[in-house]
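Methods — Computational structure assignment.
A single polypeptide chain was analysed. Its primary sequence is given first, followed by the predicted tertiary structure written as structure tokens.
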Amino acid sequence: MWILALAGVLGGLGSLAAAAVFELPSVSVRFRRVGSEQGLSHDTVYAIVQDRQGYIWLGTEQGLNRFDGYGTRVFTHDVVAPASLAEDDISCVLVDHRGRLWVATWGGGLDRFEPATETFVHIEADSSRPDALHDNRVQTLLEDRHGLIWAGTFSGGLSRLDPESGAIITFRHDPADPASLPNDHVWSLAESADGTIWVGTEHGLARLDPATGRCRTLPTRPQGSPAGSQVVVRALHLDRAGHLWVGAEHGLGRLDFRTGEIRAFAGTTPEARTLAQAPVNVIRQVASGDLWIGTNRQGLFRIAAATGEVTRFVNDPVREASLVNNDVRALWEDTSGVLWIGSRGGGASLLDLKPPKFLHVQRDPLDPGSLSDSRVSAIVRDRHGALWVGTLGGLDRYDPSRRAFEHFRSRTGDPGALPADNIRSLIEDRSGTLWVGTWRGGLSRFDRERGRFETLGLSPRLPGTLIDDRVNTLHEDARGRLWVGTQGGVSVLAADRRSLTHYRHQPDDPDTLSDSFAWVMVSDLAGVVWVGTDAGGLNRLDPSSGRWEAFRAGPPPEGLPSNRVRALHLAADGTLWVGTAGGLATFDVGNRTFRHWGEADGLPDSTVVDITADTRGQLWLSTNRGLCRLEPTTGEVRLFTQSDGLQSNLLSGGSAHRDAAGWIFIGGPNGFNLFNPMSVSSNTHVPPVVLRSFSRQGRPVSFGTPLACLERVELRHNESSFTIEFAALDYTDPERNRFRYLLEGFDSDWTDAGTTSSAAYTHVAPGRYVLRVKGANNDGVWNEQGVTLPIVVLPPFWGTWWFRALAAVALVSLLAGAYAWRVRWLKADRRRLEELVAARTAELVSKQEQLEKINSIVRAINSEMAFDNLVQALLEQMLIIQGAERIAVLFAERDRPLMRFVAATAPPLAELAGIELSPEEAEARYVADSEQIDEDLFAARNVKGRPGEEKFIGLELPAAMLVMRLRIGGRIEGYLLCASMTDPDAFAQRDIQLLSSLKEHIQAAFAKTRMLGELQVLNDKKNEFLGFAAHDLRNPLGLISGWTGLAVRNLETGTQPVSRVVADLERVLKVADQMNQIVAELLDISAIESGKLRLEPRPQDLRAILEECEQLYAHLAAKKGIELGLEPGPPLPPIAADHRRVVEVMANLLSNAVKYTHPGGCVRIRCEPQSGEAVTHVEDTGQGLTPEDLAVVFKRFGKLSAKPTAGEPSTGLGLAIAKKIVELHGGRIWVTSERGKGSTFSFSLPVATRI
């Protein structure tokens, strides 16, 4: 028998050794981690313990953590909560025999946890009292056999607490008393079988007699150390055999009770020698008897109980499944067999101590004796016990004597080496010859005597070559023939190994293989061969005819799940099991039908790449999502994954192998697994089930008491939708724990929640219910008792018994008094009808009066056609509104964006006439903070302090106002104001309704007067134009007619010379030019006023324009003997102007200056820059203007008292046009003049920088 002993596998391998014991070089151990991702409050863990409920408590540097496998509840110090944790830094946690949790803190003394309220009771230090702790820095805790709590402190010695009475006795070091503690710094505590308390201190180990309180310090000086040296005893542990293990600052020792000496631990292996010198932080014996030792920065050690062998575990930065940190501070084995390792940094590591289901061998890049490559593709154990492992990097054979792998690789030019390193298949034939199928190297056999390989095509001792050198699979049939499946077909090596036969797909021959790419092959005793192909389905070779029959994909029972067949297994009963890329199938050879198996039948994945049967007939299926065990008779499927010890969930097809002892080997991307199917044990721990949280609408609900302490949960009828989270407290693999739940009274059957750890209910009817939850561990062991929680959904008040009783009493009372009430009601109804008739009559009279008022007001305002008359009529009529002591109308001006008061009852209009408000100021004063009653109707109750109040200084302000917007044509043109001067609550609803009824009439009246006013203005303009045309156009036309007629007669009679006729026609032409000028000016003024005149402003040189205009009018001035000149001046900036229009303005001004100046007079042009603009002045010594002239000088058709000095024509439009053009430029124009002293016309234009 091939004997192997597992090195590095955690204890408990007795069941495995029953079948065979394997001695492999490096069996991997997987640590899991609990850290910040699981909610841990800090990554330094000093203490770990499990309470009676099954929770794991982790004391960290920043709070106490309660872990349930799914999340963490953190307890910390809160300065505003006296009953919170005394200090966040936790050094030790203890659960006593009554289940109470004691928490030792570093700086806050000792705390006791109260689970009913989740608060803490504090026991603080007082060094002045002998009956108190002497240091708040508590370092270690111990409960003795009498239930007394011992607390070792940093500098206050050792204290003993009676939890029942609260009495405390403290033991301190006394230099004068040799029977006192050797030092007040207590590191560790232990109790031996006789009740002795062992105390590890900064100055050695002491034995304390609890009865007398006397100490004896043991000689703990290590052998060979100088006299007087002290040993710091950091850890103590009494094992089940009664040995006291002592962890010191410089190694591990064990107390010899006979001599009282500590014997240093010694060993010959590197691990043992390291442990012997390592600073020990913690020691704990687990259920298997193994002793675990946590050290300071040297990692974790295990001393096997059976052999004494020392194994060391350290952090590997490149391996996530290694120990989280080498500084180990806490150890605890929970009830499910998981070892918890608290570290100083990184959180906690978890190691499953139960016998492993699967052993894992992987490549160590630093060990030349490990696997050639991590990717294992083929495995076989030969009849000599040698284990052969094919990888993608060569072939390995395990040498038990060296506990290492021997490597075989290809070598260029060496025909006796492997032809290729990519190994795809291995098989030992019936003669004991090892055959190796390679990718791109073909087929080789191993010569054991010479240690050399012989390859088909290269060795003269082997016939021919394969059909393809890309070998996928090897199979030996009952006749001893070796079948070689390749990517290009199938080759068969005869039993005598002297000839080859080839099979491949031929498209024109249906009796050949359906696909040349062969993945897997099996055969039966009758010689029938089955071949699984890559794309052609399943092929069967009939040995009698030599023909191939193909079975392809299709629905059952005729077809396969997929044409890609990766695995085949022929069972003892003749059933053919087929693993495909679409699922598993069984083929009944007798009736030639298929049955399909898929994920709905419990398979983890639809791709099955290997099928191996164990000695009991159970099938082990390799998939892309793990390994599953199928019981063919029942169809029961159990899945195993990486968390069970598999090297990966993705396994290598064709790599599975069962040896003669029944062990199964399976390769993958990270080495290979081996296991004894008979010894794949289950986790037998029955997990406690707890309720984690209760929430409504996604928000946790706090009941003031933990769920576990509640007798029931009461919910109101509108809180009947809720979610409850629960946990199964087995920490082997919490993610695979399963749950079932039932709400009695609501559910008809249990709900299988799978791995979902919550239950949600919506709209639960009022009533009494009981929630029951069961939980199972990762291997399906159920806690059938589970946990229960009564839930009461209270009915609404109308659904309670007392409400129904009151309703019944009320109904009887109602029926009893119905008759009397009916009689009273009839009498009262008659009175109500009479009162209603009277009220309706009074209401109609009131409405009639109001309608009459409305009609009166409407007639009065509609009768007025002029605006001034309308507002006066409105003032008089509005006084009928009760509370309206004063009425005023604020209205917009026509030619300015301002509003002013146009009418008022009081104060007199004269006092209000000077007040002007912009539309925005008016809206802000009268509307912004007012109550809107109707559209455009507002009530202003708080008038004082509103915007614009500074304009009403000296005037009495009203207490309240009714404000009506006067909206004409969609625009707000004004406001009607009705004011109460004394009563802020003035204006009854009836008055408001009256004003609301008049709103449209008033607005229509204003619109009518506005329209009539505009029509009157238009009519005035028309009359003005017609008068002008009748005068200024009729006279020139008369002259043209007269002079033209005279010229015609002179030409006909010949009485006048031609020169006289030409002179007459020149006079006609001059008058026509005058008329053309008039028409041009009329068109200009029309274009300007209608907004059709468009300027083209560009930067212009103003002085150049003035020089141009001076030259244009120099001849005209000279004809009259008038001196015209442009005065020099300062430099001018460019102006933004339309050149042609500026010339037009100057033409009008110069024309008028020359026209109204007597001969011998003077006209001067000058210009000067001012702030942001250029100003031009045209001065003359003409007749000057009167005040009346100044009022109309810039108006259309304005007639002046002054007359042209030479009888020149004047239209009265020139200055009006000039004014409009200047204003369109953004400038201004003005005149200063005095009668008889001439005039100065000035205008400004913006400089170009303003464009």
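Note: Residues 689-795 form a domain with the Immunoglobulin-like fold (CATH 2.60.40.10).
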